[in-house]
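Illustration: EAL and GGDEF domain-containing protein.
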Amino acid sequence: MSGSDLTQELLSLIQEKQLYPLFQPVMDTSRGIVIGHEALIRGPKGHPLEFPDRLFSLASQVQLLSELELACRSAAMEAFQKNAMQGKLFLNVNPNVLQDDSHPHGSTLRLSQQFGIAPEQIVIEISERYPIEDTENLKHAIIHYQKLGFMIAIDDLGAGYSGLKLWSELRPDYVKIDRYFIHSIETSSVKREFVQSILSLATSLRTKVVVEGIETPDELEQLQAMGVNYCQGFLLGRPAPYPVLEVPSSLLLPHHHVALNYQSTIASVVDTIHCVSAHTRSSEVLDTFTQDKTLSSLPVIHEKRVAGIIRREKIMEFFSGSYGHALYANKPVSYIMDEHPLSVDWQTSLEEVSQLITDNDEVDIYQHIIVTKSDVYYGVASIKNLLRRITELKVNNARHANPLTQLPGNVAINQIIEDQLSRARSFHVAYFDLNHFKPYNDIYGYEQGDQIIKWLAQILQKQLFRHGHFIGHIGGDDFVAIFKDTDKEQTEQQCNKIIRDFEQDITRFYHQEHIDLGGIKALSRNGTPVFYPLLGLAIGVVQPDPSECLSHHDVALLASEAKKEAKQSDGSHCYMCHRQKPRRLRQISPQQ
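Result:
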């Protein structure tokens, strides 16, 4: 078909509305919901312009890109409305169309109004794959869309050079990581580091990360372990005329994964290095060590499972004698390998691995530990890097821990809260504070006050650690607990158990005369004598709304307000706050 005929075909497809969308789901595997669908345009089946690459390439050549883009958006919105779809509609947009003066302004808003789709439901995806001709004009165009209420995503992050710059300047709602960095991510430490850095940056910039192109369960499991929630790819759902509405149970993030701290497992120090088959000739393995002086060992694999490990010094020893080559050159490496290497699962904690090394007197600090995943080879971990990581974690924990109770301090508390907010997860925060603690200190002394603080920390640990909840010590008599996987009723029950334990034993910290009186007499701040009841425990509990609380500062303010309410009651009390966002301070204008 000639070029002019194809151009006519393209015009016909646009004018006769023969283009149609397929929908690919974007899923939140931690919450088990479909958050939206990406619309992918197709021409009629078997048509020369059926697939988007050729369709958009031709439109660009014959200056019909603007017309094609509008036809695609219209087809996608019409199908979205017809199927009564919920959630977000992700629309791919060529960034150069947004800068085209001939492109009719306001057309996307008119289409959204025509089909009854709110602008905040529509996500305009700007792909890095297209060479951007004028970034300044593009920025103005995107800001215009944002002002109209549309959401913005940077698509294919990592495929080009402009994505990070746009991200920093425009603060998009979503970034979508290019498929290249996801393919076989479970075997590539470099790709894992790239994705981890993007996740960290996204947390700081309050941007949601969508990972595209997930095709295997191993890729999904690795990403989930790293804290990825929003997922897209053939494994979760192929592009189809009718939208996927539910997340298959097999793809949901298991609860035990949610509790994992990726940075404190052996997976955080895994390297992907060359491995050899058990059938490989020993002479070939010798050549590999000879060519790469940095290699200290090589995993030996048979049908994806670990058969053993061959160490540099071992193979050099075998080949060093007069008859070494003659005896071993043609033998398989399985003949001379170590069949019982130190091997651990990828989710083993660094502390457990450290204990294994300590208990094994034959382990060399320069050796590697083989890491497996579901009994399949995953990578290796250098013992030297492992010990360095453990030292870093211990130093960091010690630096930020409260010196009196050794519980995590403000830095760790804030990190946990930010992590929960960024993942849009439901969680409760309980703020614990002692009533009448200052007058107690005045009468009994700070040393006795410290004993009460340590005792309270023990109560919290006894009740909450076994359920996997986080406990932090802000300072003084103030503690914070973060309940990740409990509903309101469970949280309240556990807090009331803590109050019962507290009330049962608090009298052992008083002299009998004060127990008989039911309190102590001390001077108030203005110097007048005041009677203070026995110490009570005030607990303010909140369930922050991640869409309303922008950072840990908002959560802290909300929890402080709840704690103040709890302190209004006589004695110990747990106050369950119904509000999910803090009261904002009234802004005062300069004229007032």
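Reading the tokens back as a structure: The chain is about 40% helix and 20% strand.
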